[in-house]
Every structure is written in structure tokens, then in C-alpha cells.
Amino acid sequence: MIKVAxxxxxxxxxxxxxxxxxxxxxxxxxxxxxxLVWSSNAYTVWQHELGNKDYEKFPFKVWxxxxxxxxxxxxxxxxxxxxxxxxxxxTLGRIAGGISNDLVTRTADVMLKExxxxxxxxxxxxxxxxxxxxxxxxxxxxxIICPATPSFYSKPQTINDVAYTVIHRVLQLAGLNADGYRWxxxxxxxxxxxxx
Length: 196
Known about the structure:
alpha/beta, Rossmann fold, 6 strands
């Protein structure tokens, strides 16, 4: 059982956050707590891209981005994992620069300094040299860069299936056991249909 902090930033790719939250909601037997932090633009991008306010339906505790009283803002907490999904280049840059100016970047700093899991689902294309160097810096500091780059060998049938190819990897990286395509282990599963 792990405690997970999830941050959603204003990068394009709200569908990744949606699928992540739906899937982690199914893993209650593996997570002791799930807490959310939203950047200023995350709600706006979600509404624009997905056309709804379904982010309101999830049962997880939501913390304001400037509320440093959140338990995971301190290394003394028992939160072991942070997932930033999607992770904007601005957020990544602040993490790489050690700028803890809100709860998202402070929590990322805590994860790095405590040698815990920080998973950044970066969403941008193309990358410029600054982006690449920031990814290198975060990786060298112990973070995991997991680009929102779908795979297609599982033959996904829907846009949610496509997004899940990324989220399945994120869940694996977080140490969670989720159903999904594994190369060479379930080659007769052509689709991930059934996953929302």
C-alpha cells in the first residue's frame, strides 16, 4: 500500500490525467491514499480538451496549489510517489531549477531530496534544447521522465486505449500492478478495450 500525490498541470493531454485517475481509482487495494494538486490552467485545459468537468467526480482529496500544509509538502510524510500528469515544460523547468514556488514543485523537490519516486509525464513536441537539458537534470536528480508517447503494438482501438498505453507504464513505474499489455506476455490481447 502506497500513498501517491498526483499533480495535473496545464499541458495539453488532459486525457492522460483522466485515464490515470480512473485507473488508480480501481487500485484501492494497492494505494493507501491518493491526493491531487491542480495547476492554475489544468482545469481550463481539461474543459477545453475533454468538454466536461469530470475532474469533479473523483473521490480524492484536492489541495490548493499554494497550500503548503499538505502532508506531502514535507519529507517527514509517508507519501512515497508523485506523478505529474501531464507535466508542462514550465513545471519541469521549475523542478529542474529547484524552484519550489507552489505545492506541485515543492512536492517534486521533496520526492527528489528524499530519494522517492517522481514520475513526470511530459507532454510537448518538439522538445527544444532547454527542455532536453531539464529532463536530463531531473533524471540525474533521481526523477523519471515518462513522455506521453503512446505505443501501438497492443493495437489500441479507442483514444482511451491509446492514452492507457502510457498510463499503464506510469502505473508500473509507480510500483502498482495494473492490467495491460506486456510485450511477450500477452501477445493475444490485441485491444485494451474495457479500460475507460
